[in-house]
Design brief:
single chain, 5-stranded antiparallel beta sheet, about 30% helix, globular, binds adenosine monophosphate
Length: about 120
């Protein structure tokens, strides 16, 4: 799938629409999900244009992959999930339930997250 520059997270990265920012560096942006499914629900996205995890692992640089991986646990710690834990997941494609075609990891925390899938 080609990257669609009109997706909502691309617009957030271009600051065309606002977000509630949690963390940012040269490689990633993390912000609160607009429709939180748990007490804490944060999204971590790479700044590069990657549709999903397949696209990212196949085409991103080693540096981008390392920085993105590190950012997920860093952001979880930033939002206070270090001691009690959290769930990080990414949806890929239509069977995975991906709605926004820009790679993102969800971080759920702040309470018992519950069953892994329903
Ligand atoms: P997914 O189904 O994995 O693609 O998840 C997309 C997520 O993006 C959902 O949890 C939405 O609530 C969230 N979302 C959509 N638009 C925005 C936005 N403008 N700001 C923050 N989160 C958003």
């Amino acid at each position: 799938m080609n990257y669609n520059k009109d997706n909502i997270f691309a617009k957030i990265l271009r600051e065309e629409i606002p977000c509630k920012k949690v963390y940012e560096n040269d490689y990633v942006l993390a912000f609160h999900d607009i429709n939180p499914k748990k007490k804490l629900h944060v999204l971590v996205i790479p700044k590069g244009e990657y549709v999903d995890l397949n696209d990212f692992t196949n085409t991103a640089s080693e540096k981008e992959i390392v920085e993105f991986s590190k950012a997920i646990s860093h952001v979880a710690n930033l939002i206070g999930a270090k001691n009690k834990g959290y769930r990080a997941l990414t949806n890929t494609g239509s069977d995975g339930g991906q709605e926004v075609p820009h790679l993102h990891f969800h971080i759920f925390a702040g309470e018992k997250v519950g069953k892994m899938v329903s």
